[in-house]
């Protein structure tokens, strides 16, 4: 299951075309952005702070990279020489390594840095620097290099050059090793169609080259040295969510997911989508108001970095355990725009879900039954059904229907959880039944009992912290105060249990909720200096201290408990040692 988090701006950019690249730094959580030919900066992702900035009178002709072998930052200047420097050095005073052949760019695979020359030759950076006067630079192609692709599979490192010659595209690829193997060639052409995007993708322990075409189709061919073929391969899938009228950036996330960034299908703005290559379905997407021609996308850890408007944006994503239910209908209804000569036949196993649904039907109100039937006919998953139903339920203050939905649905998106939480702490008490909750010191805003029961159901549900946290940032202090107080009271109570959870699971959930609520609103809490919230903080600290004390006591008991488990019992030796005695004599 893949989800995109809320994106944020890393830094402003001058122009999309001027960005030379984004790369990872030596330290995790930091990135290097080469924003144009004269400036590059290192940023911290967590707070978007600029750590160091490099300016040069000479021109960068490649992105700035960190080379782990040299333990220095490296870049190409004016396509003719390479510099390597420490973080705080002045670039204009750093030694130059000049080459006779023009350099196209450099790239890194986290282990080694490679130099790509304009004629297509590829060498390791260390080798190129040491042997720069005697390198055997054989021409790979007479065309112009458009892009560099690379991917590591086990012990093999694949490199591809996308080359344009006389208006036509070719892919030159090979496996880099010490034997200096030659490049294999694939002509990237289809009759009356244009190439729009490309990328390497690992699938079933093989490297695949994916090519995007102007008819919305993606083709896939396996790169195998033993059976190298000059073919774009077979039809892999058809993408309807993104427009293929312009260039599309494609990047592989893992064996089951790729990311696509391009124009939206309605030609209004841009769109980023995560596509499941196993089930062949678009799982999640993020629209943008502005579309930048030829915009690129970079992958660093669990973040996608791409230009959005006048900023370089960071979009965190999560690839969790796959759930087929979350994929069904996630792209809703699609218009069939396949060519007449393309026929896709997918063999499926037909199962009857009607009997199971009817068994649950009798426990549901008729209004909910009718709505569920309508959405099921359209193939909507639970998450989309809730997105369609919930706004009306909350708008009408239909607490009974909300309770039924929380009982019936199991796959509730994090956005919906946040919306329900915000509703529960703000809804008027008159919409709930009048039976009061007996919990001592319960905030009056959380009365009556029905509100508390609904809140407990929300707190017991599973969620992804990465996805939920941005939605909780929209909470005001008024929303946050009763939630923190309730979590604190429940944690303090010895006999409190969340629905369907035992004591250990309940305490774990309460700790997790207290952490995520504070993390999402920490700045607001600190700046407000609200005494009631501060008192709740002190209470939480006491509970944490008590928990740590208990853990230390259990650590002391652990050896004894382990002996008991093994069937041994520690006994004190009460016998006396009679080999000597002590007697006190009074001399005066």
UniProtKB/TrEMBL annotation:
Q: Where in the cell does this protein reside?
A: Nucleus, Nucleolus
The name this protein goes by in its record: Nucleolar protein 11
Q: Which residues form the Nucleolar protein 11 N-terminal domain?
A: 1-317
Under the heading Pfam families, the entry gives: Nol11_C (PF20998), NOL11_N (PF08168)
Give any GO molecular function from the UniProt entry. Answer: RNA binding
List residues of the Nucleolar protein 11 C-terminal domain: 369-588
**Which InterPro entries would you find in this protein's record?**
NOL11, Nol11_C, NOL11_N
Tell me the keywords, alphabetical order: Activator, Nucleus, rRNA processing, Transcription, Transcription regulation
Matching PANTHER family, A to Z? NUCLEOLAR PROTEIN 11 (PTHR15633:SF2)
On the tree of life, the source organism's domain of life is Eukaryota
**Alphabetically, which GO biological process terms does the record hold?**
maturation of SSU-rRNA
Q: Which GO terms describe its cellular component?
A: nucleolus
């Amino acid at each position: 299951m893949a989800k995109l988090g809320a994106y944020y701006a890393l830094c402003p950019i001058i122009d999309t075309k001027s960005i030379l690249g984004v790369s990872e730094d030596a330290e995790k959580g930091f990135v290097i952005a080469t924003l144009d030919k004269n400036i590059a900066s290192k940023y911290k992702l967590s707070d978007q702070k600029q750590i160091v900035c490099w300016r040069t009178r000479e021109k960068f002709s490649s992105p700035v990279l960190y080379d782990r072998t040299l333990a220095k930052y490296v870049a190409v200047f004016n396509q003719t020489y390479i510099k390597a420097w420490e973080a705080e050095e002045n670039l204009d005073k750093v030694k130059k390594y000049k080459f006779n052949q023009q350099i196209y760019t450099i790239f890194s695979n986290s282990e080694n840095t490679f130099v790509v020359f304009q004629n297509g030759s590829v060498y390791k950076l260390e080798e190129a620097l040491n042997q720069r006067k005697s390198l055997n630079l054989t021409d790979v192609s007479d065309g112009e290099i458009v892009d560099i692709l690379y991917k590591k599979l086990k012990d093999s490192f694949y490199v591809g050059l996308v080359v344009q010659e006389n208006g036509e595209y070719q892919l030159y690829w090979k496996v880099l090793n010490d034997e200096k193997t030659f490049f294999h060639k694939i002509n990237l052409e289809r009759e009356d169609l244009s190439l729009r995007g490309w990328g390497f993708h690992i699938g079933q322990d093989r490297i695949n080259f994916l090519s995007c075409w102007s008819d919305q189709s993606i083709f896939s061919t396996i790169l195998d040295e033993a059976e190298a073929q000059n073919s774009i391969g077979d039809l892999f899938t058809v993408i309807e969510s993104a427009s293929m009228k312009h260039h599309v950036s494609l990047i592989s996330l893992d064996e089951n997911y790729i990311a696509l960034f391009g124009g939206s299908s309605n030609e209004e703005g841009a769109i980023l989508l995560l596509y499941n290559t196993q089930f062949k379905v678009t799982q999640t997407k993020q629209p943008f108001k502005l579309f930048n021609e030829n915009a690129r996308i970079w992958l660093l850890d669990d973040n996608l970095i791409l230009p959005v408007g006048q900023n370089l944006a960071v979009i965190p994503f999560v690839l969790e355990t796959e759930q087929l239910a979350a994929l069904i209908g996630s792209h809703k209804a699609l218009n069939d725009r396949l060519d007449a000569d393309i026929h896709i036949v997918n063999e499926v196993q037909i199962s009857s879900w009607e009997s199971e649904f009817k068994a649950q039907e009798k426990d549901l109100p008729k209004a909910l039954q009718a709505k569920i039937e309508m959405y099921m006919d359209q193939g909507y998953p639970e998450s989309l059904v809730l997105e369609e139903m919930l706004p009306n339920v909350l708008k009408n203050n239909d607490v009974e229907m909300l309770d039924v939905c929380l009982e019936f649905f199991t796959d509730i998106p994090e956005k919906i959880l946040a919306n329900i939480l915000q509703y529960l702490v703000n809804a008027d008490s008159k919409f709930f039944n009048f039976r009061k909750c007996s919990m001592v010191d319960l905030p009056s805003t959380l009365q009556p009992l029905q509100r508390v029961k609904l809140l407990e159901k929300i707190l017991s549900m599973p969620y992804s912290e990465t996805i939920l946290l941005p939605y909780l940032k929209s909470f005001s202090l008024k929303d946050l105060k009763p939630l923190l107080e309730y979590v604190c009271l429940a944690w303090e109570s010895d006999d409190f249990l969340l629905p369907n959870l035992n004591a250990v699971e309940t305490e774990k959930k309460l700790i997790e909720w207290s952490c995520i609520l504070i993390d999402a609103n920490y700045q607001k809490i600190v700046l407000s200096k609200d005494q009631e919230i501060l008192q709740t903080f002190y209470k939480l600290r006491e509970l944490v201290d008590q928990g740590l004390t208990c853990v230390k006591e259990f650590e002391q008991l652990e050896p004894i408990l382990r002996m008991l488990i093994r069937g041994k019992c520690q006994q004190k030796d009460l016998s006396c040692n009679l080999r000597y005695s002590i007697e006190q004599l009074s001399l005066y």
